[in-house]
Amino acid sequence: MCRNESMDLGQVVIDTADILKYIDDSGSRFKEFHPGIGPYGEPQLVKLVAAEMSRLPQYSSGVTTMRTPDLFIRKHWALEVKLARPFGDNDRCAENWSVNLLHPYSGNTSLLGDCLKLQAFNCEERKGVLAIGYEHEPAQIPLEPLWSAFELIAAGVMNLNLGPRVVARRCGLIHPVHQQLVVIGWELR
After folding, report:
1. Is pLDDT above 60 for 4?
2. Does some domain include residue 183?
3. Which member of 6, 68, 162, 179 has the lowest number of beta carbons within 10 Å of its beta carbon?
4. Count of structural domains within the chain
């Protein structure tokens, strides 16, 4: 399989944010939670994103969900995905929510652990990680310190070589707590 460099991570991040906003605008509901994409679990959300991506011409090479990686864009990207939600559907502060990104151990399900898993994953596609975060408008707990902590631990503690941060933000979500989303991407070099 030939590596195709034409699709950059910035486009994937923008498309993911647009797809999530589109799904949110539809009034979609996960289980008994408030309508909107905020309450969806990671596997369910990644499946929805993959299904919508598959309808777009730029993803005609094929998009699948797997155990590793979470989102596989054939000939382009192998991506792991994590959610960051400081508040639950009930507007209460969630416990241990930042661990989803920052637990720096191999075999762990954090985004840092996923970076290690991706390093060992054998494929021709470029590798990267996506974080999908939800905030109030304005943010009661801003996610920026979480992104910076992730980058510091990845580079300074784990010696991971991340590309520059790519960001797409969408406001006006229908959920009363998860009012805006941010999709962040880093290439794992």
Report:
1. no
2. yes
3. 6
4. 1
**Residues in CB range of 80: below 8 A, 6 or more apart:** 68, 69, 70, 71, 111, 114, 115, 117, 118, 128, 129, 130
Q: From residue 169, how far is each of 16, 109, 136 by CA, in Å?
A: 10, 25, 12
Residue 130: domain span: 9-188
3 assigned to some structural domain: no
Report which DSSP code applies to 93.
B
The edge-to-edge listing of strands for the beta sheet with 126-135 is: 63-65, 71-73, 77-84, 126-135, 180-188, 166-170
What pLDDT sits at residue 1?
Answer: 32
CA–CA distance, 96 with 86 (Å, rounded to integer): 9
pLDDT above 90: residue 162: yes
- Name, in order, each residue with C-beta under 8 angstroms of 38's C-beta and a sequence gap of 6 or more: 24, 85, 89, 134, 173, 175, 177, 178, 181
- Name the average pLDDT for the chain: 94
Output the pTM of the full model.
0.94
Establish if 145 belongs to a structural domain. yes
Rounded CA separation 51/173 (Å):
20
pLDDT tens readout for residues 105-156: 888 889 999 999 999 999 999 999 999 999 999 999 999 999 999 999 999 9
